[in-house]
Amino acid sequence: MLSVLGCGMPRTGTRSLAEALTLLGYRTMHELANLWNLEALDMADELPDHVFRLGTEKLDAGTEAIYWRRIAMAHPDAKLILTVRERRAWFRSMYAHLRHIYRQFQTHQFQAAQRSAERHFGDARPMPALYCDRLENHNLLVKLWCVNTKRPLLEFDVTRGWGPLCEFLGKPVPKEPFPWKNRYATK
User: Fold this and answer.
1) Tell me, what CATH number does 30's domain have?
2) Number of C-beta neighbours around residue 142 at 10 A
3) Which among 9, 13, 46, 120 is least buried, having the fewest CB atoms inside 10 angstroms?
């Protein structure tokens, strides 16, 4: 069963969080939706709750932005970590990421990337106001859900390093540096 769930939007430090959790001794999977191939399922929202427990028996932690609430409900003891980032830097990173994906992938991969962007943001075309509003709405929804359900939540900016994360999880700070993955537009 999952004991930690990262629920930040893409490009907010979720990959760095997943790596950090692994270094802290958690068996971790980045982007849990891949466990159930949810991108391929148009009816994922209609799946029964128990599906979101399947396959997690050997995991302690994971990250997921779209289906975070369903996964959190299936794992009621999991602590939630919301990775956060300044909105302009986040959009620059997201825009560059989507441009790279759209240019590089073949037709079926391109279509999957577009579907994912549409699920996250309501439109596959990266528009600053829409995307930034979706980021802020997502973050607010996570915070309100955690308050209403009395779930532990850490709002975590990965640039702060090990301290807040280890304190929240009750783990000692490792000697190795905090892992930075996919560093882009952090200035």
Assistant:
1) 3.40.50.300
2) 24
3) 46
